[in-house]
Amino acid sequence: MRIAVTGAGGRLGTSLRSELVGRPFVDAILAWDIPEHDLDDPASAERLVRRDRPDMVVHAAAWTDVDGCARDPELAMRRNGVATGELAAACALTGAGLIVISTNEVFDGTRKDGAGYGPDDEPHPINPYGASKLAGEQAARRAFAEAAAARGATDSRGVEPQLGIVRTAWLFGPGAPDFPTKILAAARRAAQAGEPLKVVGDEWGTPTYTVDLARAVVGLLESGRFAGTHHVVNGMFATRSQWAMYIIGRAQLDVEVEEVPSTTWPRPSTPPRWGVLEPTALPTGPLRVWTDAMAEYAPMLLARSEA
Ligand SMILES: NC(=O)c1ccc[n+]([C@@H]2O[C@H](COP(=O)([O-])OP(=O)(O)OC[C@H]3O[C@@H](n4cnc5c(N)ncnc54)[C@H](OP(=O)(O)O)[C@@H]3O)[C@@H](O)[C@H]2O)c1
Questions:
Q1: Is the confidence at residue 82, as pLDDT, over 70?
Q2: Is residue 88 part of a domain?
Q3: Atom of ligand 1 at shortest distance to CA of 167?
């Protein structure tokens, strides 16, 4: 298979490319990113799909600055919503399959029964980033449905191109500064000042390791059973403050974590308070619990932060 990855230089894109290297089912890895692949350019996705003729595209590119999206919802909708529809239309028309990476922020986080959100739960975003990502999911589904209807039954290879939506949450891993990197820097500053570190204690989610997520997505690709909506996160969940405490413990820093409500720092974007996703079944089995993934990542994180 010729597999294209959008947002190829981003945190997840980088892990996806590493995970695809050397896989027997992969003929070529096509890395698409700015400036060639531009979410602001309505013609960019179709141009690349026609030029590179991928069998599969994994769409990891997005405008992930949630506060930026809240300040400019129209641009968020263009980049995360409309551009996903354009890519999906180009894929569906040329017979390429597509996996769209989406987010827990399509849910409002008001669930009270302690269970994670499943794929059948009704999305209801409460911020422009979540709204734009949900619009992207919907535009992709529409494009594949319209292409299938226009084609009649099957494409020239006798196989209907498939669409998968993979929702995930709270990504961490090598690449751009993630929550663990930022918390570690803040904890070091607090330790030097001899002050407690204030961290939000009323926002729940599942920290998810990009390496594990990439492995799961590649497993879905390899199995060929990626159609539909999947919730792919590491096991268990935590509050932001619990995640911070774990990181501070691994770094052996003498800092007290003071749990504060999310209203302490008003932000342009309101995150869902209960952002927990219920993991769906995967051909490669469930992802390990997030603390085990963090334990693998911690030496890399600490080495990088000390460099
Ligand atoms: N980060 C999270 O916690 C999280 C949680 C749930 C879901 N997700 C989803 O997971 C996916 C990957 O996230 P990530 O954390 O890997 O994000 P990331 O590190 O911010 O990477 C996003 C990628 O998209 C590219 N991009 C940004 N604006 C673009 C534009 N206008 N045109 C073309 N490409 C553009 C970026 O390029 P530059 O680096 O050059 O800007 C980068 O390669 C996204 O779909 C995101 O919505 C992320």
A1: yes
A2: yes
A3: 7
